[in-house]
């Protein structure tokens, strides 16, 4: 105790000599993340009622909606695509599952076609070998089978004896080969039939998956107030050059790895291919793909917005020639969906998905949110 008291006293004296403690300064907030720059060479937004958002991309037109969504505690109320996070996720999962099932279905049909050819060849071999074996058996029945020892005893000299010995060995080898080939052909036919049955079951399973995913998408749209038939079609849509597929016929996973020519961001190779195909087929009005904020596929470089107006993204519903342009573009993307890897297309309060076709899409808000001033396409 005597040793502790001097130490405590010295400590207190030292503390008394220190300046009074100050409250810790508040932690500095992390600097806000800088959004990726928008489309290059963007002119300032014009002021006044009915001002045109020319050559700016949809980012500026939706900036207020994006900021509002970012500040909400309930992220499922809405997004800058006029839907909700839950709806978008449900539609994306349903579309992906349908496309994957279709790829597996197509691959199974190709394997089945190859197996049918194998079965036909095996059956032809069986028929030919059975005929050969039948000829030998028929001759033996009609004339009576002459045993090997009898043929050898009937030889007139040593040379004839050797010739007959060699002949008997050759006949034995040929008969054995025919029977072996026949057994092999029958086994191949059995394997082909079994494999064909397996492929038929696989195809039925994939068709069932597609049916269930169609129902999932319909329910998600109905819950959001959408659904019902609709659509945009164009029998004269140009045929786009197909995007590369994987060896199994599906779409390979891609990341945002290539420069987006419409912004300073990035897109996937498949998105870039789809945008270039659309432009080469005559749809050359302003387009914006990558967007750092908001939800959906834009931040992942897997979506593009095509302006309906010739001057860019206008904050009005497309009419006249602009509406016709959007109709033709939406139909073009749908007609080439299998070639380009399209997940869904949204235009003028309607959405197209593989397996479901066109359905009403109850986006609410500005023309950007209702997709009445631009065509949206999301890629796999």
Automatic annotation (TrEMBL):
<feature type="region of interest" description="Disordered">
    <location>
        <begin position="211"/>
        <end position="256"/>
    </location>
</feature>
<keyword id="KW-0732">Signal</keyword>
<protein>
    <recommendedName>
        <fullName>ARB-07466-like C-terminal domain-containing protein</fullName>
    </recommendedName>
</protein>
<feature type="domain" description="ARB-07466-like C-terminal">
    <location>
        <begin position="264"/>
        <end position="372"/>
    </location>
</feature>
<feature type="compositionally biased region" description="Low complexity">
    <location>
        <begin position="22"/>
        <end position="42"/>
    </location>
</feature>
<dbReference type="InterPro" id="IPR058593">
    <property type="entry name" value="ARB_07466-like_C"/>
</dbReference>
<feature type="coiled-coil region">
    <location>
        <begin position="91"/>
        <end position="132"/>
    </location>
</feature>
<keyword id="KW-0175">Coiled coil</keyword>
<feature type="signal peptide">
    <location>
        <begin position="1"/>
        <end position="23"/>
    </location>
</feature>
<dbReference type="Pfam" id="PF26571">
    <property type="entry name" value="VldE"/>
</dbReference>
<feature type="region of interest" description="Disordered">
    <location>
        <begin position="22"/>
        <end position="52"/>
    </location>
</feature>
């Amino acid at each position: 105790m005597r040793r502790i008291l001097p130490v405590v006293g010295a400590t207190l004296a030292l503390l008394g000599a220190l300046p009074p403690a100050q409250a810790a300064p508040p932690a500095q907030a992390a600097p806000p993340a800088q959004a990726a720059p928008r489309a290059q060479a963007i002119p300032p937004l014009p002021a006044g009622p009915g001002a045109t958002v020319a050559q700016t991309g949809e980012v500026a037109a939706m900036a207020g909606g994006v900021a509002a969504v970012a500040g909400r505690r309930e992220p499922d109320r809405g997004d800058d695509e006029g839907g909700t996070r839950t709806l978008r996720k449900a539609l994306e999962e349903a579309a992906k599952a349908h496309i994957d099932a279709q790829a597996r279905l197509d691959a199974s049909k190709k394997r089945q076609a190859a197996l049918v050819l194998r079965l036909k060849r095996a059956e032809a071999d069986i028929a030919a070998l059975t005929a050969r074996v039948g000829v030998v058996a028929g001759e033996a029945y009609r004339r009576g089978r002459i045993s090997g020892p009898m043929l050898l005893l009937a030889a007139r000299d040593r040379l004839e004896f050797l010739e007959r010995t060699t002949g008997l060995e050759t006949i034995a080898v040929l008969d054995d080969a025919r029977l072996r080939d026949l057994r092999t052909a029958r086994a191949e036919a059995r394997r082909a039939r079994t494999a064909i049955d397996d492929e038929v079951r696989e195809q039925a399973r994939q068709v069932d998956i597609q049916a269930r995913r169609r129902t999932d998408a319909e329910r998600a749209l109905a819950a959001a107030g959408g659904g019902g038939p609709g659509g945009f079609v164009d029998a004269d849509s140009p045929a786009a050059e197909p995007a590369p597929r994987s060896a199994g016929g599906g779409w390979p996973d891609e990341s945002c790895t290539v420069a987006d020519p419409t912004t300073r961001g990035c897109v996937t190779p498949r998105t870039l291919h789809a945008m270039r195909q659309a432009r080469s087929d005559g749809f050359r009005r302003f387009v914006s793909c990558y967007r750092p904020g908001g939800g959906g596929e834009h931040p992942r470089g897997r979506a593009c917005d095509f302006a309906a107006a010739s001057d860019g993204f206008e904050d009005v519903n497309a009419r006249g020639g602009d509406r016709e342009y959007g109709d033709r573009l939406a139909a073009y993307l749908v007609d080439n969906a299998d070639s380009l890897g399209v997940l869904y297309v949204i235009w003028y309060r309607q959405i197209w998905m593989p397996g479901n076709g066109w359905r009403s899409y109850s986006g609410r808000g500005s023309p950007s949110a209702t997709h009445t001033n631009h065509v949206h396409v999301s890629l796999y």
